[in-house]
Amino acid sequence: MAGGGFVVAVALLWIKLKKNDAYRESLVAMVGDSVFVEDADRVADLGGVDRDTAFRLADQMRRAETLALTNNYADMLEVLAQGHAGAAMLDVYPDLPPKLQDPLLLRIARLAPPGWENVAWEAARHGDTHLVVTTSRLLMAAQFPAVAEHAAEWLETASPRLRASIAAGCLQGDNPSHKARSLKILQELLESSRPEDYLSALGALEPMPHPDLMPLVRPMLGYENVKARALALAIWSRCSQTASDEAVEIIDRALSDPAHQVRTAAVRAASALPFADMPVFDWLSRALQDTDYRVRATARECAKSFMPQSAEAWVEALARRESDFELQTVMISELSASDIDNKASMLRQVSEKHLHHARDKLLILQNFSTLDSVPEPATQLLMRVLREEARRHLDIVLQILGCLDQSRQMRYIRAGLASQNRQLWAQAMESALQFRKESPVFRELAVLFEAEREGVALAGEPPGGRRVPNAWLKWCQEFGSEWLAECARYCLGNGRFAT
Amino acid sequence: MSLHLERVLLLAKVPLFAYLRTDQLSRLAPLLEPVAWAKGERVFDKGDMGLELYILTSGHIGISVDADPTCQIFINELWAGDCLGEMALIDNEPRSATAHALEDTQALALEKDRLHGLLMSYPELGIGMLRALSQRLRAMTPKLAKNVK
């Protein structure tokens, strides 16, 4: 039996190699196309490639003229050729212009293919200041001997960027005289009034903070220069000697900063802070609702570090923020990707609660419409908010269904149900109702979608009973989002529904 | 009604913002600056560089395309809820018309840089902007046709 298994394994390997050979040309062409359309899913579906194909793909980077294109090729190499990506990138590295070499070197250093230090060192000798700065920093971290030999000379160079970068690297090394000189150089640069000096020092310290320099970095959290504020925040969070209550104050202030760069740095800083018992969900929620897309994207990117660690903490966090839609959406994705044991049943419970809230909000909306008078502008706004929130609850239920069943069929159904096209929606719902496992959820979804889209009357009473708008408004204050609560508070304070 | 809710309700009726949810409008509303002109003043002149768009909250504006900015022959008139000045913010060309305050007028101003940032943050605004420009073009078509005849 064992012998037969071995033969089958060899045969499969042979077939795989032959298949790789046969499809190499079309594979390279397809990846070439995909780089332009940034179709990561399509490329990921291809599976792994061998060393020769990885080098052929890397070869296409020689023809890439923009940073975005080079990055796309590098991304794909890392996905498709994990074992050979570094070597393949290193092969083309010397032939690229310095502006493309600089960002690629960060990847190469991370992947560390054999001999990368020599290739990088040689390229830096012909590169611009930016490339020399990046190369020297990475080679110092890798303890490449040639860089250490040049350190004393570079510490006295005219370029503040290079001086700062070498100094920050020397502070991490063992040479006592280099360390003392480096500390002095960085102090001088941080104390300088010239932005090119202090920004160079901050930029160099960001990846390699040093506690002795924190007294000079800390006041820069309040600098007028936006870049200085953002960099100081990043350094502070990685080298924090602050008490947790002061940390809360610093992050709170930074999240209200007028510059999106500082708010973005605040999210990253908050995700790096080591303290427990901080209002991390408040911060994440604020960042997810920021008016700048870059802050929102960073919040989604860093969300994992804000998430609870135990099942109990997950249940509590999800229940406490049921109407914080942005946060719920992110938390559901993170819970789904986590390795919490009973996540499927937790997601089903969350889904039930959202269906329940959607129904309550739609019932209140429909009952407001049955009141005798023509609604005032504030009531009209409240009704619109109720409808929007009901829809958002339904969208979250669709998201959860997608987390529970990641099949392509479910993906199509969810897309159809989220569509504004009535016919597409009906077809998707018809398919959805065939799903035996989730059919109760889909049946309830069908009723609620009809009520939300077409105004079809729902059976049942709104919270508090019929014709008691004050009770509905109080419910909105208690169970609605902050925005719905604000609208309800205004309507209640207005005394419009006092009788 | 509270000023904030009033602003949200106003923005909800402006075609530019029609595709945003009210909670998004609630976050955008504080980014708009209140401005005002007395009757007889000009909001901007034809040929000025455009730095802001305006959403009228009250009053009445007349739009003239005459080269003389004092000319009061209007091709269009705008009221509360209408939007003006967005074209120059998109194509970076000078103002194509002069805007006259025909009554005491109040508006909310949105700066060019802020609008561009918001367009990146809320892509629905782009669709709203196309809708607003399309509506304006549609409204102008019969007038153009009349002139051709």
* Proportion of residues in helical segments of chain B: 25-40%
Annotation, overall tally of beta strands of chain A: 0
For the record, what is the CATH homologous superfamily label of chain B?
Answer: Jelly Rolls
By secondary-structure content and strand pairing, the structural class of chain B works out as: alpha+beta
The first-to-last residue Cα distance of chain B is 49 Å
> Treating each run of at least 4 consecutive H or I residues as one helix, how many helices of chain A?
27
Pattern of helices and strands of chain B:
HHEEEEEEHEEHH
Oligomeric category: heterodimer
Largest interface: A-B, 19 and 18 residues
Question: What is the domain total for the residues of chain B?
Answer: 1
Specify the CATH class of chain B: Mainly Beta
Q: Major β-sheet of chain B, in short? A: 4 strands, antiparallel
Q: Element order, helices and strands of chain A?
A: HHHHHHHHHHHHHHHHHHHHHHHHHHH
Helix count of chain B?
5
CATH topology-level fold name of chain B: Jelly Rolls
- Work out the number of β strands of chain B: 8
Indicate the proportion of strand residues of chain A: under 5%
Specify the CATH architecture of chain B: Sandwich
Structural class determined from secondary elements of chain A: mainly alpha
Overall, the morphology of chain A is: globular
How far the N terminus sits from the C terminus of chain A, by CA atoms, comes to: 85 Å
Spell out the blueprint of helices and strands.
The complex is a heterodimer of chains A (499) and B (149).
Chain A: H1 2-37, H2 40-44, H3 51-59, H4 67-80, H5 85-92, H6 98-111, H7 116-124, H8 129-141, H9 145-154, H10 160-171, H11 176-191, H12 195-205, H13 214-217, H14 226-238, H15 244-255, H16 260-272, H17 280-288, H18 293-302, H19 311-320, H20 325-337, H21 343-369, H22 377-404, H23 408-418, H24 422-432, H25 439-454, H26 469-479, H27 482-493
Helix pairs in contact in A: 1-4, 3-5, 4-5, 4-6, 5-6, 6-7, 6-8, 7-8, 8-10, 10-11, 10-12, 11-12, 12-14, 14-16, 15-16, 16-17, 16-18, 20-22, 21-22, 21-25, 21-26, 22-23, 22-25, 22-27, 23-24, 26-27
Chain B: H1 3-13, H2 22-28, E1 33-37, E2 42-44, E3 52-58, E4 60-64, E5 76-79, E6 83-84, H3 86-91, E7 98-101, E8 105-111, H4 112-121, H5 124-148
